[in-house]
TrEMBL record:
Keyword Phosphoprotein on entry: no
Cofactor info, note text: Binds 2 Zn(2+) ions per subunit.
Binding annotation for Zn(2+) 1: D234, H236, D313, H507
Domain Calcineurin-like phosphoesterase: residue ranges: 227-508
Protein name: Sphingomyelin phosphodiesterase
Length: 675
């Protein structure tokens, strides 16, 4: 109805214009001067031919007289310092968490990302990064809330609260390049939503002070004297182990009163034997049984070992939130003391494992600066002091360890240098490693080992390197960039300086070989140095308990023979309810005899990288040799599954992978562990 009326009015006015045709004149020329009478005053001379009028304008509402500077074309203002320019009010801490979670939810739901879970994840990390930069105190709450929203842990509150990992995760978010390589790796490793970014191209030429000598210096000559050296690893004493508690529990850590079988509380399906169980760490009874057996089996009760290497992990596998610094320090105190008293004379050279810190696996680079640089010094101070107290290293070396993440170098009077590493700097589970990851050495750990190796080369000394987390094997434990650089360092100083490298961590009896030229041509002629991975004392998981004794030439520090021992955890329940006898540790195998039958090798020729490469060739020709290796990998556990077909190919490949980069590039995945 209304529309119609408007239409009629419009039509009438058009008709009226059409009728007024007689308008005069048809042209009007205005005067040349500006009509100055329009305004009572001007900022300039309005009659000028060269300038536009600048009238003084007065606002009838505000009574303000607008200043010339507003319209002065020669001084156009660019920075309005007069008007209010509003910002939103600052968010409270709780509002920041709420908004951050809402943004994470929006990113998760936004179809623009399609199925690119990696881009979603990195976008989400950006939200979290800026929230914690603005308000670090919200980091833990945000982590807990994100964990609950996306359900990436069953114990979100306990895991990510400030009193557990919340502070660590907040530091990570604050410092990491979450939009770049760091963020991709975080999303890959911790959230499973990206592929791990590839190894960053490395040119290590300038890393080294001097080129590799060519020809190599004349090798040190064997003396024919054989030293006895003990290698123990992964003790994992559980001082909370409870005989008779559930040993087949559904969640870590079994053999404790607070865990249950799948049937729930009330019934105990498999009571924990006094000496240990396959899903449990070592009770005191197992630790002392192993340490009491070692000198008897080695024949060193009177002499002690020439030395012992301990490749880390003292502490039990509790969930992080059940741990605290004093539990770590208690365990360090107990085990180093037992090593000292039960293994006899001869120094023990320990390296720290990922469990020998708090939070588990966490060690921060000194380059974080300020108080954050020192956040793990309580531990480096404690272990260094204990090692000095036990008489294994002197004050100078202890002071060095204090300021080098508990890593150190000992120059023995016999011409061997022991260089230890705190391998948390390349362990995937250390959150601090995801800050500036394209730098292969933010910790300076590889700088330290390189400088020590250069010193050793200059002095004509040989070196053993000792650490915990293996850099290579199946590539699942260590990060690409640091282990890629480590490989180049081993190449540079092998075989004339580095005689052997030792690790633990996997709890399994494994080995890998370093070659020249980044392993581009793996042959007996290019093999440089072997890495010995020691079986664990703890049976966790599904493994027997074991250790190894080496016979070492006192001139070359090459290994001439290796003897591995084990105890059968499957029989431990039979030892309960009596005190007449404990478990038996027994000889498992002789490395040279087991793998060397078809290799032409002198009786006093070392089990060096050349020999080990020939072993891998023998394995290619004779797959049953891989089955033997597989059995020993699990310390002859009844629970070890057979390894044939692709598994056998994979194991040989892992043996030839000294860096995570090589393992990932070359080998089938999924066969690294027998657990
Ligand atoms: C704008 O003015 C403010 C206040 O005088 C001053 O602090 C700021 O530096 C100026 N900005 C620019 C871009 O000149
Ligand atoms: C590596 O760096 C050195 C020295 O900086 C240079 O001479 C060499 O060409 C580089 N190598 C490669 C493969 O880029
Ligand atoms: C341990 O518990 C699992 C799950 O309930 C069960 O399958 C397995 O047979 C049990 N093992 C033993 C030795 O009782
Ligand atoms: C990370 O890299 C940045 C930029 O190079 C540097 O300022 C910072 O100190 C580095 N942080 C660490 C922990 O290395
Ligand atoms: C401490 O031990 C190192 C061997 O690693 C030795 O070079 C140094 O002279 C010793 N220092 C003292 C004060 O005995
Ligand atoms: C690999 O090294 C061996 C021994 O030095 C040599 O015989 C062979 O030709 C090399 N292969 C390649 C592809 O370089
Ligand atoms: C390993 O020992 C054999 C026999 O003594 C020797 O010929 C070979 O050069 C050694 N290999 C390395 C990498 O040192
Ligand atoms: C040890 O004693 C407990 C409690 O009496 C019993 O349940 C268990 O079967 C006994 N174990 C052995 C190996 O005799
Ligand atoms: C040695 O070689 C022979 C003949 O190829 C083979 O039958 C035997 O299994 C091999 N033994 C070992 C330990 O590799
Ligand atoms: C060594 O090989 C690995 C695997 O191919 C590669 O990722 C890495 O970049 C190589 N490192 C160097 C220094 O060439």
């Amino acid at each position: 109805m209304l529309g119609t009326v408007v239409g009629v009015v419009g039509l009438l006015s058009v008709t009226a214009v059409a009728q007024s045709t007689d308008i005069q004149p048809s042209t009007y020329t205005v005067p040349g001067a500006f009509p100055t009478s329009l305004y009572s005053s001007y900022y300039n001379n309005p009659t000028a031919t060269s300038a536009q009028a600048q009238p003084v304008i007065s606002d009838p509402v505000t009574h303000e007289i607008y200043s010339f500077s507003l319209t002065d074309p020669n001084n156009i203002p660019q920075n309005d310092t007069v008007d209010p320019h509003l910002l939103p009010p600052p968010a409270t801490s709780s509002a920041l968490v709420t908004h951050a979670i809402a943004q994470l939810a929006s990113i998760a739901a936004n179809p623009v990302f399609g199925d690119n879970t990696c881009a979603r994840c990195q976008a989400g990390l950006e939200v979290a990064k800026f929230a914690v930069l603005a308000a670090p105190e919200i980091g833990p709450d945000l982590a807990v809330a994100a964990c609950q929203y996306f359900d990436f842990d069953s114990e979100c509150q306990l895991t990510y609260m400030l009193n557990n990992l919340g502070g660590v995760v907040t530091q990570l978010l604050a410092f990491a390049d979450v939009g770049g390589y760091d963020g991709q790796a975080i999303c890959a490793n911790f959230l499973g939503s990206c592929d791990m970014p590839l190894t960053t191209p490395l040119n290590s030429t300038e890393w080294f002070a001097k080129p590799k000598p060519d020809p190599l210096p004349t090798p040190r000559q064997p003396t024919g004297e054989r030293l006895k050296v003990l290698h123990i690893s992964d003790a994992h004493i559980d001082p909370r182990y409870t005989t008779g508690a559930e040993s087949n529990c559904s969640d870590y850590l079994c053999c404790r009163p607070n865990v249950y079988s799948n049937d729930g509380p009330g019934t105990i399906t498999v009571p924990a034997p006094r000496y240990g169980a396959y899903y449990c760490d070592s009770p005191y009874a197992l630790i002392t049984a192993a340490l009491e057996s070692i000198p008897v089996l080695a024949g060193t009760q009177e002499t002690g070992f020439d030395w012992t290497i301990f490749t880390g992990d003292l502490v039990s596998h509790d969930p992080d939130y059940q741990l605290q610094r004093s539990y770590i320090m208690y365990t360090e105190t107990v085990l180093y003391d037992l090593f000292k008293r039960l293994l006899g004379s001869g120094p023990v050279y320990p390296s720290l494992g990922n469990h020998d810190t708090h939070n588990e696996a966490q060690d921060a680079p000194y380059s974080l600066g300020g108080y954050l640089a020192e956040q793990f010094s309580w531990n480096y101070d404690h272990v260094s002091s204990l090692w000095e107290y036990e008489g294994w290293i002197n004050e100078t070396v202890a002071n060095y360890a204090r300021t080098h993440y508990a890593a150190y170098m000992v120059r023995r009077t016999d011409g061997l240098r022991i260089i230890t590493l705190n391998t948390d700097f390349w362990y995937r589970a250390n959150y601090f490693n995801y800050i500036n990851m394209t730098n292969p050495d933010p910790y300076g750990m590889l700088r330290f080992v390189t400088d020590e190796l250069q010193d050793a080369e200059d002095a004509g000394d040989r070196v053993w390197i000792i650490g915990h987390v293996l850099p290579g094997w199946d590539g699942t434990n260590a990060l690409y960039n640091p282990t890629d650089l480590f490989y180049q360092i081993i190449d540079r100083y092998s075989p004339h300086v580095i005689a052997n490298v030792f690790f633990g961590h996997s709890h399994e009896d494994e080995l890998s070989i370093y070659y020249t030229n980044n392993g581009t041509n793996m042959s007996a002629a290019t093999a440089l140095t072997p890495t010995w991975v020691c079986p664990s004392i703890t049976p966790l998981t599904n493994l027997n308990s074991g250790f190894r004794i080496y016979e070492v030439d006192s001139g070359t520090f090459d290994i001439l023979d290796a003897h591995t021992y084990w105890a059968d955890v499957n029989t431990f329940a039979e030892l309960d309810n009596q005190t007449e006898y404990g478990p038996a540790y027994r000889y498992e195998y002789n490395t040279r005899e087991t793998y060397g039958a078809n290799i032409t090798w002198g009786l006093n020729d070392p089990l060096n990288a050349t020999w080990w490469h020939l072993v891998t060739e023998a394995m290619e020709a004779e797959p049953s040799l891989v089955s033997t290796f597989n059995t020993y990998e699990g310390k002859s556990s009844v629970r070890t599954q057979p390894c044939t077909g692709e598994c056998a190919t994979a194991k040989i490949c892992y043996m030839r992978s000294g860096s995570a980069s090589l393992a990932a590039q070359n080998c089938p995945s999924g066969y690294g562990s027998v657990q």
